[in-house]
Design brief:
The complex is a heterodimer of chains A (581) and B (193). Chain A is 35% helix and 18% strand. With 581 residues, chain A is an alpha/beta fold. In chain A, strand 20 and strand 21 form a beta hairpin. In chain A, helix 10 runs parallel beside helix 12. In chain B, strands 2-3-1-4-5-6 form a six-stranded mixed β-sheet. Chain B has a single domain, classed as Pyruvate-ferredoxin Oxidoreductase, domain 3. The chains are: A alpha/beta (581), B alpha/beta (193). Chains A and B meet through strand 8, helix 11, helix 14 and strand 20 of A and helix 1, strand 2, helix 2 and helix 3 of B.
């Protein structure tokens, strides 16, 4: 049986394997995370987590210099972090093939923005492939490595959440291992001094022209002629919606979307009466086609926001559109947002910070959920690592009103990713802001990936652990305190002491993720209904295990409670009880 | 030959095994020689949030997404999550509900009540509502974690696939040491009243 069902991410991993890939690195980020996780399952391939996307791409760039096929994967905003090496890698080129996967997230299922990373391919002047299902995700990964080597360029494989996280049937092939190339010292190619880079830029422009020519004949760009009244240019997942909703139109399906195969587009445009582009997010293709002097439509009837589906495409072209009436217009139902897990150590820290009415600059991770009711203990969340710089900047301008009140909150993985540089800045520029590092010793939000502080590498080999406390001290922070976040009284005392200091200071909330470490502290706690006064203070910690009974008294769900003890500590009438041994 | 496409929405709460169940459903379609796609969004699923997976199968499938108003079946692992995705159901479609209530926190701090009459809300939309006590069946099998396979057993009565295809698909998608338990869970669901 050579057919199986793979997600887009599994298919990319499989394609890399079949193409003889030998080295891969990434930083986790939804919807890209499972690419490296699945590559890591192949014993033939070296795969490792990097502390951030810039490092991942640089390590992969070095590995390609060594003459083997390499891959780096990241979510769309991760490519912002890796943009510096990306743009210059374009000039330098490769030795072994190099593919960068950018997993975009239209509709922001788990992201802070919905930037369209196709612009990166254009700005960095590198080829870009966009698969429309798992089979193509596999095939295009292999093709990307071939193009990379043939045209001496990194290649962007651009996906969206609906490609990464959809599953479909894929035909598998054997792995073919290409001959490893020798590493050759090459001053003119690999040293991007201005004199060399100027010459390389000429080659980059020439490469784009050659690639545009290649795109015209490439099997990944296909014209499907049918009714010529309407011609549609589509790529990625949008192609599928066109096939479902407009089965009779002519289609130019683009797999290679940068540089544009201009000859092919003209050929297609000449054959159809009206030309449309159906693309999610920005008018990336549409504007370029319009700039060719071709009359084209798209964003005049399709949204620039969010992701598409059949209904959106149908509405744009007025065909069979289902009625808009929703059951939920008549029945109001409670939303079910993700919440901090029962027994999560972050809960105690947020409870204390809220109690102290601190101004909290937040960051990206599970703990961002602390911004939601009932904890609501976060003022800002911008991008990876921004909690530190935001705390510093706000403290410098907000004045006396917020004196002693400003603290950044960041997880261990995010701290390694890009928090440490902010902390160095805090010390260097004499900031008085404070930082709390929630050290649960894992990259939790994306599904528990190992990191430089967890003690294991991607394939579970033992690793040295970063000592966060020593790292903060080495950056010049005098006051670095570890607390047990499950002890609310002690945590409160430490926060009070630290916030009063007139210098930067770091509090490390030191407790492993209960889900990753499979921690159960005790049998489920319970409520003595006779003592419960319905004060609802226990509800303020936002634990999903604490419910209400018919009388409005607190009730603990024994299926969820792991006995972390925090609710008992905040219960003034002592109604919450620990079970006897 | 007309391309008859079957659309099934599986919904539930993080941790209930919705995504594994939808993997099995895609696998059974493939075992039966059909094209199949599914789509879901993970990332937050482990944090107790609402989880939905959309499965489609037929001779040729393009989009991995189901249009609202076109699902043949909604397989809800939790009552509220049947209502949340009810707009996907086509007229006269089938709603299969596990009679379990997991109250989200928003019931307490946002004071939005959990709907009392889930069955009635569904019956407003279709006559074909099937309610089963999946937790009881799972507990009788000695493991509440097989709820998802019990649900597939119930679902199997409303699909075109043979029992042999189903068992084959389950074997492909579950860990070998749990296969026997899952096989029994499937049978229990398939014969549940």
């Amino acid at each position: 049986m050579n057919k199986t069902i793979l997600s887009g991410n599994e298919a990319i991993a499989r394609g890399f394997y079949e193409a003889g890939g030998l080295f891969a690195s990434a930083y986790p980020g939804t919807p890209s995370t499972e690419i490296l996780e699945n590559i890591g399952k192949y014993s033939e391939i070296q795969a490792q987590w990097a502390p951030n996307e810039k490092v991942a791409l640089e390590v992969v760039g070095g590995a390609a210099l060594g003459g083997v096929r390499v891959l780096s994967a990241m979510k769309h905003v991760g490519l912002n972090v890796a943009a510096d090496p990306l743009f210059s890698l374009s000039y330098q080129g490769v030795n072994g093939g190099l593919v960068i996967v950018s997993a975009d997230d239209p509709a922001m299922h788990s992201s802070q923005n919905e930037q369209d990373n196709r612009w990166y391919a254009r700005a960095a002047k590198i080829p870009m492939l966009e698969p429309s299902d798992s089979q193509e995700a596999k095939d295009f990964t292999i093709l990307a490595l071939e193009i990379s080597e043939k045209y001496d360029t990194p290649v962007l494989l651009r996906t969206t959440t609906r490609i990464n996280h959809s599953k479909s049937i894929v035909t598998l092939n054997e792995r073919v291992l290409p001959q490893q190339k020798d590493y050759v010292k090459d001053f003119a190619k690999n040293i991007l001094l201005p004199a060399n880079a100027r010459k390389k830029h000429v080659l980059v422009e020439k490469r784009l022209e050659e690639l545009a020519e290649y795109g015209t004949n490439c099997s990944c760009n296909i014209i499907e002629l049918a009714d010529k009244k309407m011609g549609i240019v589509a790529s990625g997942v949008s192609y599928n919606y066109v096939k479902e909703i407009l089965p009779n139109v002519s289609i130019l399906k683009l797999g290679l979307t940068n540089p544009l195969p201009k000859k092919l587009i003209r050929e297609f445009a000449d054959q159809v009466e009206r030309l449309f582009v159906i693309e999610e997010l920005d008018p990336f293709l549409e504007e370029q086609i319009a700039a060719m002097g071709i009359k084209v439509e798209g964003k005049n009837r399709l949204p620039i926001l969010g992701e598409f589906d059949q209904t959106i495409v149908a509405q744009a072209f007025n065909s069979d559109v289902p009625a808009d009436k929703s059951v939920l217009d008549e029945v109001k139902i409670p939303p079910r947002p993700p919440v901090l897990c029962p027994g999560c150590s972050h809960r105690g820290v947020f409870y204390v910070m809220k109690k102290m009415k601190l101004t909290i600059t937040g960051d990206i991770g599970c703990y961002t959920l602390g911004a939601l009711p009932p904890l609501e203990a976060m003022d800002t969340c911008l991008c990876m690592g921004a909690s530190v710089g935001y705390a510093e900047g706000l403290e410098k301008t907000a004045g006396d009103k917020l004196k002693g009140k400003i603290i950044g909150v960041i997880g261990d993985s995010t701290f390694y990713h890009s928090g440490i540089t902010g902390l160095i800045d805090m010390v260097y520029n004499d900031s008085k802001a404070k930082l709390c590092i929630l050290d649960n010793q894992i990259t939790a939000m994306t599904g528990h990936q190992e990191n430089p502080g967890s003690g294991l590498m991607l394939k579970n080999d033992p690793a040295k652990k970063v000592d966060i406390e020593a790292l903060c001290r080495a950056a010049g922070v005098n006051k670095v305190v570890k607390v047990d976040p499950y002890n609310i009284e002690e945590t409160l005392a430490v926060f009070k002491e630290v916030m009063a200091l007139d210098e930067p200071a770091v509090i490390i909330a030191d407790a492993p993720c209960v889900i990753k470490a499979r921690i159960i502290f005790s049998k489920p706690y319970f409520v003595d209904a006779g003592k419960c006064t319905k004060c609802e203070i226990c509800h303020r910690i936002g634990c999903p295990a604490i419910e209400k009974d018919e009388d409005g008294k607190a009730k603990i769900n024994p299926l969820l409670c792991i006995g972390c003890d925090m609710c008992l500590q905040v219960c003034k009438p002592q109604a919450i009880q620990k079970p006897g041994e | 030959m007309k391309n008859k496409v079957v659309n099934i929405v599986l919904s539930g709460v993080g941790g209930q095994g919705v995504l594994v169940a939808s993997d099995v459903l895609v696998a059974v379609a493939m075992v039966a020689g059909l094209d199949s796609k599914k789509s879901e969004v993970h990332g937050m699923a482990q944090r107790g949030g609402s989880v939905v997976s959309q499965v489609r199968y037929g001779r040729k499938i393009y989009s991995p997404l189901i249009e609202k108003g076109s699902a043949d079946i909604i397989l809800a692992f939790e009552k509220l999550e049947a209502v949340r995705y009810l707009d996907f159901l086509k007229p006269g479609g089938i709603v299969i509900i596990n009679n379990q209530q997991i109250k989200p926190l928003t019931v307490y701090f946002a004071n939005i009540p959990y709907p009392e009459d889930v069955e009635a809300i569904c019956r407003n939309k279709t006559d074909n509502v099937v309610i089963i006590d999946g937790i009881k069946i799972s507990e009788e099998l000695g493991n509440p974690r097989v709820l998802n396979t019990v649900m597939l057993g119930v679902l199997s009565n409303y699909t075109q696939f043979s029992e042999e295809h189903w068992i084959n698909a389950i074997q492909q998608r579950v860990p070998p040491k749990t296969f026997e338990l899952n096989r029994r869970a499937f049978e229990a669901g398939r014969t549940a009243k």
